[in-house]
């Protein structure tokens, strides 16, 4: 089954404790993205990756890091989490529709930073 | 730059009534437009998309949307609402820009369906 998986699904942590949210896709997609969803703000892109070893900032990259060492994996790293990073996070992978990119989303990771 | 405006953060309809969720976009390049649905505690599921061709697009669960370039709109409709349609709906736009795989989302519309 084609899917995007994220782990963990729920995470409660404390300020400053480094964490990683994993994302993996089995569709051989080149493009992957991370979004955060906050009430009243919709989804905003954090980082994206066009291919292995190619990443770039989205709209809200501050406080986050990513890496793309393998095509299927795109982990999101919070080196020193803060309470304003409490949010619902989605990973997505994309297929090129000839200029448009249809994105497939993972189930989400709900992060709480206290 | 791209942006999406969804009018009405909350919409309430009666079961069997017409559903109309509004979306207006701005884009400096030819837009590709999407509607996603999010059920409680779930991820986003693609309802329908407009890339090129026919401006009336049909999606899953009886939804459809019409791309109107002159009005920069992509409103989502369904002739008859069902209780199972209660969810949050997001309109999104992408285009051929530097961040090619970026979707710009609206702030979402929560649809409530009442008996």
Describe the structure.
The complex is a heterodimer of chains A (114) and B (115). Chain A is mostly beta strands. Chain A is 0% helix and 54% strand. In chain A, the strands form two sheets. In chain A, strands 2, 4, 5, 6, 9, 10 and 11 form a seven-stranded mixed β-sheet that branches. Chain A has a four-stranded antiparallel β-sheet with strand order 1-3-8-7, with no helix packed on it. Chain A starts with a strand and ends with a strand. The model of chain A has no long low-confidence stretch (mean pLDDT 93). Chain B has strands at residues 3-5, 10-14, 19-21, 24-26, 32-38, 44-50, 56-58, 64-68, 73-78, 87-94, 104-105, 109-114. The termini of chain B are far apart. The model of chain B has no long low-confidence stretch (mean pLDDT 90). The chains are: A mainly beta (114), B mainly beta (115).
Structure characteristics:
heterodimer, A: about 110 residues, mainly beta, 7-stranded mixed beta sheet, 4-stranded antiparallel beta sheet, 11 strands, about 0% helix, globular, B: about 120 residues, 6-stranded mixed beta sheet, 12 strands
Compute the separation of the termini of chain A in Å: 36 Å
Query: How would you name the oligomeric state of the polypeptide chains in this document?
Result: heterodimer
Q: What is the tally of helical segments of chain B?
A: 0
Q: What structural class results from the helix and strand content of chain A? A: mainly beta
> Tell me, what's the shape of chain B?
globular
Gyration radius from CA atoms of chain B, angstroms: 14 Å
Overall residue-averaged pLDDT value of chain A: 93
List strands and helices in order, with pairings:
The complex is a heterodimer of chains A (114) and B (115).
Chain A: E1 4-7, E2 10-13, E3 19-25, E4 31-38, E5 42-51, E6 54-57, E7 65-66, E8 76-78, E9 87-96, E10 101-105, E11 109-113
Chain B: E1 3-5, E2 10-14, E3 19-21, E4 24-26, E5 32-38, E6 44-50, E7 56-58, E8 64-68, E9 73-78, E10 87-94, E11 104-105, E12 109-114
Parallel strand pairs in B: 2-12
Antiparallel strand pairs in B: 1-4, 3-9, 5-6, 5-10, 7-8, 8-9, 10-11, 10-12
């Amino acid at each position: 089954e084609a899917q995007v998986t994220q782990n963990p699904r729920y995470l409660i942590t404390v300020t400053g404790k480094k964490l990683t949210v994993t994302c993996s896709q089995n569709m051989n997609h080149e493009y992957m993205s991370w979004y955060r969803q906050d009430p009243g703000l919709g989804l905003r892109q954090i980082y994206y990756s066009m291919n292995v070893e190619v990443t770039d900032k989205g709209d809200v990259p501050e406080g986050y890091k990513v890496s793309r060492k393998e095509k299927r994996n795109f982990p999101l790293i919070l080196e020193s989490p803060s309470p304003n990073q409490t949010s619902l996070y989605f990973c997505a992978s994309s297929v090129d529709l000839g200029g448009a990119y249809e994105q497939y989303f993972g189930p989400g990771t709900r992060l709480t930073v206290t | 730059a791209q942006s999406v405006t969804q009018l009405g953060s909350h919409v309430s309809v009666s079961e069997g009534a017409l559903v109309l969720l509004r979306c207006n976009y701005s884009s400096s390049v030819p837009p590709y437009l999407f509607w996603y649905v999010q059920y409680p505690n779930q991820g986003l599921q693609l309802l329908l998309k407009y890339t090129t061709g026919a401006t009336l697009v049909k999606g899953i669960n009886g939804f459809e949307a019409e791309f109107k370039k002159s009005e920069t709109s992509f409103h989502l409709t369904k002739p008859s609402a069902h209780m199972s349609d209660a969810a949050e709906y997001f309109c999104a736009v992408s285009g051929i820009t530097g961040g090619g795989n970026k979707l710009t989302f609206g702030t979402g519309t929560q649809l409530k369906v009442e008996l």
